[in-house]
Design a protein that fits this description.
heterotrimer, A alpha+beta (251), B mainly alpha (188), C alpha+beta (705), A: 251 residues, alpha+beta, Alpha-Beta Plaits, two-stranded antiparallel sheet, 10% strand, C: 705 residues, Aldehyde Ferredoxin Oxidoreductase Protein, subunit A, domain 3, globular, binds iron/sulfur cluster
Chain lengths: 251, 188, 705
């Protein structure tokens, strides 16, 4: 969506949000919350062409915060997510992920002292969607631009009508947080239940909270390196902002 | 706020009592008045200067089905919402500080209602939080007073002391129940 | 149409280990009338396993069955029932079930199966791999001899971290009747480990990615689930806390609802303080701490967290970390379990039995769990421990065991209550080593057989709590007078029924219990205060019947009878009522086929009657009353000589128990002379074929209805 935006708009947005120095020094647009609201303030949205690929999503309003030290591995959150939203009990479809960590933790059945989960030190590390800031790995990877932000919560949501079931988003998420609905043939991910997260309500241990968004992507390690390659059209748009080092910044 | 605004005032009273109950506190009418003033109902309470606002609140309280009143040990009426603060707990709160009576009444209620004797440790834990010395002193006081003649204890084969009221439990039965209680952990 | 039914996964998996044949059947078509769980197991045994089959014969079958509610978010649904010809039943093996929680049942459903039927016998050690539709028998040569922990780790490495492994240890491999199968660290089913071992089946590992469909309206379903949560108490559905709280009118120091503000999970990193309103639904898990309930206050500081079955918010498997045991006994510092299995180690020692036991008992428990849950040794509801105590203290062992073997056992440690004794004893049992190890590995009946000890030495002695057929009482007259006695006469192992005890011990005052009893069973006289028993009456029999039907139903639906039924609740505004129709409401919504309480209870009765029929068939005897439904002499005695129906005794009266059994048989529609169902009763329950089969063998009452 940035493709058709004149670069001076970007610069003005950067100025408005105090990121000008960052821009000129690194030739790199760091889009934090303020940067994006700056863009919004300038009515930048109006400039986005109707058919332009969607690249930049405004930050989400909320995010699920999970406390592993309270989690008892009951999977009630997973079941609430799928039963109450989809009418079927299916942990593999859940957008919060417990089952994979219950036995041995995110590291798997390695043995040794570092192992988590029921067979390890007892810690259950819940898998939750970070509702990533730009560039949103899953959304960026989607060749159909089927992952958009929910107008209400800012959650990154899969539009099932646009999703063609290629599973590239699944490969893109560094935390392996997308699910694939085999029945519908589309990907699905945490949509924050339109602002009333079922998982949070279902947790009998108060281990989940719905809190104002903050960037959790830098906390801790990634589960794996995501394969988030933007599609060619998107990639072109990306270059409007992400200028190779040593080249002219933005302008 | 007009004087005729009784439903509103009634609602505010319920809220004030509920607020206190949620904090596990009993409130008298005077405190309800204070809480009402803090909620901006002062003007409404003072519309009839000849009527003590406390009396007026009391009258309104007696007509509120959701609110229960308790004749406190001090003689005055205190109020709570039983959905947030149970009768049992309200009584415990009211008797706090009068250790012998607090224990005796708790022992009696257990012997009468469930029926069962209670282990003495019950009183060491919240919400009683009595120190062993305070418990001992209360026992001495009970032994010396006619009023607590019914309070008795039985010791299990494992040495745990259970308390009961002879008004409601025979000694042999209390002893049986105490033994049974103590062996529940071996009867999973 | 089978395909449109929700709740059920839809298929039953059959694996013949002799031929390697793997197949599936339609659940609804074949087993709808018995739902699942033990019902499905009984049906398979009735149809396919001939009378006289031994537990370790290849012809015996092993039926792992979940239920229609398993895998959903119905609270407390994670149960697997494993039905087979049960090896510890004495003097002759009869039908029985072991039950395990954990995550096995749900995974089996997600893989697409309501049950797994294992047939035949492999010619070498194997394990069964189930990954959705892909099922394979794989070689287990490298696992044979390993404990359950290692087996699980290695199979998880092969299958992926989120599979669930149900494995046997050394006890099962050595075909010990006291062997058990374990999944998810600590969830065990007793008695069936040796049957797996006899089939050369080391483990079943399941991975499932599918769904359990809720056929009804999802909003209604959500509402019902939330309602159920709102009527939950703590473990065993104790609906009042053990201490006064502002929100509760009642409390009970003996309640398993021990989580109290001020307590904390002391071994969590960092510790978790129990704050806020313990009644709140976001804090259900903090109500129960089995270790604190059974072992005392000290256990809080070792508590890492609660753990438990899929979807259960109660978390009765308390996870403990006790660093001292690593140094002292060379074992891991983590362990978890509930109830009897939590106390496996402690219960061997007379000196650690007093009260809650404290630190010394906690260490013994840690050693016990380490050994039992890895080698797969069952306690037979504590009978193993009581047997050893009696054998030792009663001088039986000294007299009967060869002096060399006797001397090889570290009795000095035993006398000192030193948990290190278990490091010697438990492997003897698991490996069936020496005479003591071998006898204990075969259960209580083997004690009588091998050492010519009359059964009456046990049955006369209240301290053994021995009931009959090689098994102990399980919530009998001490909890529930005649109702408890009736229930304990009915099974071929310990009764495993909690419907009755969960109600009488729920912590509500007697008057409230009687009010609820009037609503449910028609009279306040359906129950007495413990130890204040009144003579038998039809309402007690009705409640006994209800308790048994619900137990069978819970096993068949896959919900936990250690928690249900939910007929009482912590809710003041409901008059402490729960909901007697909860199970049928859930099943109706899940399957999309409405079924009311009566119809579902009839299914429970059908299942229970099938158990009766199998018992009659395999005993080759119709007179259950005299030949099966027996009561040990200790029930009719009192140490202090108190008369029955005096306050403060659990002593029962023989003639009165006779009347209680009459009432019960009448309530069941059975012949009161023999305690056996007649042909008409079988037919009325949709078991006409069973009635005819038994009639042909002369196994229905003569003048049977
Ligand atoms: S990349 Fe993963 S964590 Fe980030 S928004 Fe997408 S699904 Fe969520
Ligand atoms: S917020 Fe909703 S969609 Fe997201 S994980 Fe929780 S229940 Fe699922
Ligand atoms: S519901 Fe809560 S305690 Fe249970 S698995 Fe989810 S986060 Fe953990």
């Amino acid at each position: 969506m940035i493709r058709d935006v004149p670069s001076e708009w970007i610069e003005r947005a950067a100025q408005a949000s105090g990121l000008e120095a960052e821009l000129s020094r690194r030739g790199f647009l760091k889009l934090s919350v303020c940067a994006l609201s700056g863009l919004a303030l300038l009515g930048l949205g109006d400039a986005f062409g109707a058919n332009a690929p969607l690249v930049i999503l405004d930050n989400a309003k909320g995010v699920i915060l999970a406390d592993p030290t309270r989690c008892v591995g009951c999977q009630r959150c997973e079941l609430a997510c799928t039963e109450f939203n989809d009418g079927r009990a299916q942990p593999s479809l859940s957008r919060i992920k417990i089952a994979r960590a219950v036995n041995f933790g995110p590291g798997g059945p390695t043995g040794g002292d570092a192992m988590h989960g029921d067979w390890g030190d007892g810690l259950i590390v819940q898998g939750v969607c970070r509702q990533c800031p730009h560039p949103v790995p899953c959304a960026t990877a989607c060749p159909q631009n089927a992952i958009k932000d929910d107008p209400q919560t800012g959650a990154r949501v899969v539009d099932p009508a646009a999703c063609v079931g290629c599973r590239l988003c699944q490969r893109a998420c560094p935390w392996d947080m997308l699910s694939f609905d085999e029945q519908a043939g589309v990907a699905t991910k945490c949509f924050l239940c339109h602002g009333r997260p079922k998982c949070v309500e279902a947790c009998p241990a108060a281990a989940l909270r719905y809190v104002p968004w903050r960037d959790l992507t830098r906390d801790g390690g990634m589960l794996r390196s995501g394969l988030s390659a933007p599609s060619p059209e998107n990639a072109k748009a990306c270059l409007d902002c992400h200028v190779p080092a040593g080249k002219t910044a933005v302008k | 706020m007009s004087a005729g605004d009784a439903p509103d005032l009634g609602k505010a009273i319920v809220e004030a009592v509920r607020e206190a109950s949620a904090e596990a506190r009993l409130v008298g009418a005077d405190e309800v008045v204070e809480r009402l003033r803090a909620r901006g109902f002062g003007e409404c309470l003072d519309t009839e200067p000849e009527v003590d606002p406390c009396r007026r609140v009391e009258a309104l309280l007696s007509g509120l089905p959701e609110i229960a009143s308790l004749a406190s040990l001090s003689g005055r009426a205190v109020y709570h919402d039983p959905a947030l603060l149970s009768r049992t707990y309200a009584r415990i709160l009211d008797r706090k500080g009068v250790t012998a009576l607090l224990m005796a009444e708790e022992i009696r209620a257990n012997s009468r209602d469930y029926p069962r004797p209670v282990p003495v440790e019950l009183f060491e834990a919240p919400p009683f939080d009595l120190a062993p010395e305070a418990i001992e002193a209360a026992f001495k006081a009970m032994a010396a007073s006619e009023e607590f003649r019914d309070i008795a204890f039985t010791t299990t084969s494992q040495g745990t002391v259970y308390l009961f009221s002879s008004l409601h439990l025979e000694r042999d039965y209390a002893t049986f129940l105490a033994e049974q209680d103590e062996t529940f952990s071996m009867n999973p | 149409m089978a395909a449109s039914r929700g709740g059920f996964a839809g298929k039953v998996l059959r694996v013949d280990l002799s031929t390697g044949k793997i197949g599936v059947q339609d659940t609804i078509e074949r087993y709808e009338a018995v739902l699942g769980g033990a019902g499905l197991g009984y049906r398979v045994l009735w149809d396919e396993v001939p009378a006289g089959t031994g537990p370790f014969d290849a012809a015996n079958k092993l039926v792992f069955a979940a239920g229609a509610l398993v895998g959903t978010s119905v609270p407390c649904n994670g149960r697997t029932t494993i039905t087979t010809i049960f090896p510890t039943c004495w003097p002759r093996p009869l039908v029985g079930s072991g039950h395990m929680g954990g995550h096995f049942a749900a995974k089996l459903k997600y893989a697409g199966y309501d049950a797994l039927i294992v047939e035949g016998k492999a010619d070498r050690p194997v394990w069964l791999m189930i990954r959705d539709a892909k099922v394979e028998i794989r070689d287990a040569g490298h696992l044979w001899g390993s404990g359950i922990r290692r087996t699980t780790l290695e199979l998880s490495q092969e299958m992926g971290p989120d599979c669930v492994v149900a494995a046997i240890g050394q006890a099962g491999e050595s075909q010990a009747p006291m062997g058990m199968v374990i999944n998810s660290v600590s969830h065990s089913a007793g008695g069936v480990g040796g049957v797996m071992g006899a089939k050369n089946l080391k483990a079943v590992a399941v991975q499932g990615s599918g769904a359990v469909r809720i056929a009804g309206d999802k909003a209604e379903w959500e509402k019902l689930v939330k309602f159920h949560l709102s009527i939950l108490g703590a473990n065993n559905q104790h609906v009042v806390p053990s201490f006064p709280t502002p929100q509760a009118e009642y409390y009970n120091p003996a309640s398993r609802w021990v989580g109290q503000p001020g307590r904390r999970w002391g071994a969590a990193k960092p510790p978790v303080e129990l704050t806020g309103d313990i009644h709140d639904l976001s804090r259900i898990v903090y109500r129960t701490n089995s270790a604190a309930f059974f072992l005392g206050e000290e256990a809080w500081k070792y508590t890492v967290r609660g753990n438990g079955c899929t979807a259960c918010p109660i978390r009765c498997h308390t996870m403990l970390r006790v660093p001292s045991v690593t140094v002292k006994y060379g074992i891991p510092d983590m362990a978890q379990n509930t109830c009897i299995a939590l106390q496996f180690g402690r219960m061997f020692f007379k000196g650690l039995m007093a009260g809650k036991g404290g630190e010394a008992a906690i260490e013994a428990c840690m050693v016990g769990m380490h050994l039992a849950d890895d080698m797969g040794v069952w306690s037979n509801y504590g009978q193993l421990q009581r047997d050893l105590r009696k054998l030792y203290e009663g001088g039986y062992l000294k007299a009967r065991l060869g002096s060399k073997e006797y001397a090889s056992i570290p009795w000095d440690k035993y006398d000192r209550n030193d948990p290190a004794f278990l490091l010697d004893l438990v492997p003897r049992i698991a490996n069936r080593q020496g005479e003591l190890g071998d006898v204990l590995s075969r259960g209580t009946g083997a004690i009588f057989d091998t050492w010519s000890i009359p059964e009456s030495d046990w049955a006369d002695d209240h301290s053994t709590t021995y009931w009959k057929m090689g098994h102990p009482k399980h919530h009998a007259n001490e909890d529930d007078g005649q109702c408890g006695v009736i229930i304990n006469t009915q099974y071929n192992r310990d009764a495993q029924c909690h419907s009755h005890t969960n109600f009488v011990r729920n912590g509500l005052p007697l008057a409230v219990q009687k009010k609820l009893a009037t609503d449910i069973w028609g009279s306040p006289d359906a129950l007495d205060a413990p130890g204040d028993y009144t003579p038998a009456n039809p309402y007690k029999a009705r409640r006994a019947k209800w308790s048994l039907m619900r137990k069978e139903l819970h096993d068949a639906l896959g919900v936990c009878n250690w928690m249900g039924p939910w007929v009482a609740s912590p809710r003041w505004e409901r008059g402490y009522a729960g909901d007697d129709s909860l199970e049928s409401k859930f099943l109706s919504l899940a399957t999309g086929r409405p079924m009311d309480r009566e119809e579902l209870d009839r299914a429970g009765e059908r299942i229970f009657t099938l158990h009766r029929a199998l018992t009659i068939r395999d005993m080759g005897q119709v007179d259950m009353r005299a030949g099966h439904d027996t009561v040990p002499p200790w029930v009719f005695e009192d140490a202090k000589g108190a008369a029955p129906f005096t306050k403060g005794t659990i002593r029962m009266d023989r003639a009165d128990i006779g009347r209680a059994m009459d009432f019960f048989y009448e309530a069941m529609g059975w012949d009161t002379a023999t305690g056996a169902p007649g042909k008409a009763r079988y037919a009325a329950l949709g078991l006409a074929d069973v009635g005819e089969g038994l009639a042909a063998a002369g196994l229905v009452p003569q003048d049977g209805k």
